[in-house]
Amino acid sequence: MEWGAIRGIIGSGITKEGERMLEGNLLQMLKESRYTTALSGYIMLLESGYPAIRDGDASYDIEQKYGYSMEEMFSSAFYSTRKEKFYKFYRDELLSQLEKPPGKGFTGMAELERRGLIQCIITRRIFGLPRKAGCKNVIGLYRQ
Q1: What b-and-e string marks burial along 124-135, b requiring 16 or more CB atoms within 10 Å of the CB?
Q2: Domain count along the chain
């Protein structure tokens, strides 16, 4: 049962042999650890269906749509001088994403936390997916 939670985090693109190795090694390390912290990252966000708005095509599409780069729109100067455009972007591109449920990686972390195999999750994403998945001890590191 614990391996199912771990598999949710690392994905399904590994061989059976790799699975057995990971199951043995990773699970053993988690069980022997006194305190384990998990870091949620960019790929887990994508796995949950959230757009990569700061990278690649999505970033380009947003710049084409709004006429400003992400960095510009997230600046205090932009907010101070173009509040209406900022709020439109924020509402349409960010708040609209909040209804999406967390993916398997986040629910896997919540299961590992419930079982006492990880004690803390650190994220820098603003969507609150670890908490939505049921994680209790979450530290959010957000750019200011």
Answers
A1: ebebebbbbbeb
A2: 2
Side chain identity, residue 49:
G
Q: Which pLDDT belongs to residue 84?
A: 94
Q: For residue 131, what is the domain's CATH number?
A: 3.40.50.1220
On whether both 62 and 40 belong to a single domain, the answer is no
Measured distance CA(88)–CA(27) in Å, rounded: 45
Q: What is the pLDDT of residues 80-100, one digit of tens each?
A: 999 999 999 989 888 888 788
The tokens for 112 are 């590992």
pTM of the model: 0.68
Nearest to 40 by CA among 116, 111, 115, 120: 120
Nearest-angstrom CA–CA distance, 47 and 84: 31
H helical segments located in the chain: 2-10, 16-32, 42-47, 56-66, 70-73, 76-81, 83-89, 104-114, 129-133
Query: 14 is in which domain, residue-wise?
Result: 2-47+103-140
